[in-house]
Amino acid sequence: MKKVEIHPDAVERVKKFTINDPQLGFGKYVAPIMIQALYDHGEWQRFDLLPYGPLQLDPCSKVLHYGQEIFEGMKVFRHPDDSIHMFRPEMNARRFNLSARRMAMPEIPEEDYLNACATISAYCKHLIPKRLGESLYLRPFMIATEVGLGIKPSKQFLFIIVASPSGSYFAGDAVKVYIERDDIRCAPGGIGFAKTGGNYAASLNSYAKTIQLGCDQTMWLDSVEHKYIEEMSGMNFFAVIDNKVVTPTLTDTILDGVTRKSIIDIARAEKIEVEERKLSIDEVLKAVQEGRCTEAFVCGTAAVVAPIASFMDKDQSVYKLRDSQGKIGMQLREKLIAIQAGRFDAPQGWTYPVRDLNF
Question: pTM of the entire structure?
Answer without folding.
Answer: 0.95
